[in-house]
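look at this stuff:

>
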Amino acid sequence: FTRHNDQNSFDPADYSFEAPADGYYLFGAKARFKSSGTDPTLIRMGFSVNFAVPNPDHMVELDPTDVPGLNTLSLTGLLKLSAGDKVYVLTYFTDEAGYIVDNDNYFWGCKIA
């Protein structure tokens, strides 16, 4: 669900934020990962613009073996967008499967300049 979507920038159909105008936008995201068995060797998360692969230098990563079973990643980022660009949060798991806990995550964005 969305708490504030005054400009209808968040699209709940594909969980994306669409920039209503050119500018700089600040984003934040948190994802809680739960293993369905064996933990992956690495979990990575990043912001994607128009479904491009996120720049590896701008991603956060976590070794889930530090806290087996349930792990949280948080990310903030400043992106320069053109009107109509769509931003997604992409999460990658290495070697093993798992899932993002649907009631314990968030994604937000706002135009700052």
Q: What stands out?
A: The beta strands are 10-11, 16-18, 23-35, 42-49, 60-62, 70-81, 86-94, 98-100, 106-111.
